[in-house]
Amino acid sequence: SDPMAAAASPTFDVAAAIAHADTLLRRGKRAEAGEAIATLIAEAPARAEPWLLRARLDQIEGDFVAMLEAARQAIAIAPQSMIAGFMCIEAETMAGETAAARVRLADIEQRHANDPVALRRAAETYTHLGAHAEADRCAQAARALRPDDLDGLFQAASCALAMGRLEEAETALDELISRRPSDFDAYYNRATLRTQTPQRNHVAAMEAALAPLAGNAPPALSYALAKEYEDLGEIERSFDHLERGAAARRRALAYDVQADVSAMNDIAGHFGGAFFARDTEGFADEAPIFVVGLPRSGTTLVDRILSRHARVESRGELNDLPLAVMRAAGRTPDKAQRIAATAKADMRALGASYVRSVRGGGASAPVFVDKTPLNFLYLGIIA
User: Fold this and answer.
1) What is the distance between the alpha carbons of residues 173 and 155, in angstroms, rounded to a whole number?
2) I need a labelling partner for 168 at 20 to 30 A (CA). Which of 33, 42, 300, 326 fits?
3) pLDDT 10s digit of each residue in the chain, 383 long?
4) What are residue 165's phi and psi, to 5 degrees?
């Protein structure tokens, strides 16, 4: 039986109302979705689905505290529901309750130890939390339960790569490509595992895979060829594939650079001299070290130098600071108003929220390094 099912008033079609609210959410009609979800909650208060829809709407609108409240309502109604459990984990992560999210995720892993679908979802969630050993454990368990699942094979290869088992990752990707030749992400991941050599590379096989695509190569395949040709010293061919891949990727992107330029101008305006002249108290914990910079500028090297110190650990690239900033801003209609609201936020509380989130994610050393290049957007807040 469905653990989320419960009776509603006999004249109200709950299933149809759930489907309608879900459609409104997918179409971006937030106001109408909010009204439909409110009606659902009133008509079917003992069903978990309306609360899950409410959590999704709160997430879209950037209100992570409300999202967590709705998700916890759903899990209280349906404590055995895997869907509600993962929604609650996502909400706890976004609300900065990462320690609670880790506990809940471990419980799901234990309760669904024989369910490959649940284990794959757990592995994905552990990866998002930066818990690569736990992700690897779940991916390997899912693979053992369903060895013919090619998506599971790709995930197991990715986890092996994250754990530094490069030969194992390459063997798994070789198998995946042989069984699913159209998995072009696998070609790219395999190309990045090592420096290719004239005696051992995949160029011929990839050129063969490229031939029938008639100039419509997906970016991943073009980038894989660019990487291997570069390793082989064939720079012109490498750049040709790189250019093709970038052009294909750009065609698929709905990106307006002016939106980011405007946001950076807003940041410069709000976090200037007047901001720093305020009589405000920051968060005094000296644990975080932020390493920022453009891609390929040496941030990883700096991170590794710092984390060689006995009191310092690297946490890699994190989402904790952007999420803490969004929590501090609260529910705002657009990016410009979010920036303005953040400049007025309690910086001490924002810093405490950020560090608590990172600590809950497993940071235990006295000092930790957050090596997220895009944190340059938050340098005013960090300072």
Assistant:
1) 10
2) 300
3) 344 545 455 678 999 999 999 999 999 999 999 999 999 999 998 999 999 999 999 999 989 999 999 999 999 999 999 999 999 999 999 999 999 999 999 999 999 999 999 999 999 999 999 899 999 999 999 999 999 999 999 999 999 999 999 999 999 999 999 999 999 999 999 999 999 999 999 999 999 999 999 778 899 999 999 999 999 999 999 999 999 999 999 999 999 999 999 999 999 999 999 999 988 889 989 999 999 998 889 999 999 999 999 999 999 999 999 999 999 998 888 899 999 999 999 999 999 999 999 999 999 999 999 999 999 999 999 99
4) -95, 80
* Phi/psi at 290 (5° precision): -100, 125
H or E segment at 365? Answer: none
DSSP letter at 202? -
To which residue do tokens 């369903």 refer?
A: 146
Contact 217, 199 (CB under 8 A): no
Q: Taking Cα atoms as reference points, which of 216, 229, 357 lies closest to residue 283?
A: 357
Q: What is the pTM of this model?
A: 0.86
- CB count in 10 Å sphere of residue 204: 8
Contact yes or no for 82/113 (Cβ under 8 A): no
Integer-rounded Cα radius of gyration of the chain: 24
Task: Give the phi and the psi of residue 200 in degrees, each rounded to 5.
Answer: -145, 95
- Is residue 71 packed enough to be buried (19+ CB in 10 Å), middle (13-18) or exposed (0-12)? buried
To the nearest 10°, the Cα dihedral for 258, 261, 267, 270? -70
On the CB side of 257, how many CA atoms lie within 13 Å of its CA? 1
Token pair for 272: 């200037």
Cα distance between residue 222 and residue 241, in whole Å: 5
- Rounded to whole angstroms, how far apart are CA atoms 104 and 129? 13
Do 40 and 72 touch, CB atoms closer than 8 A?
A: no
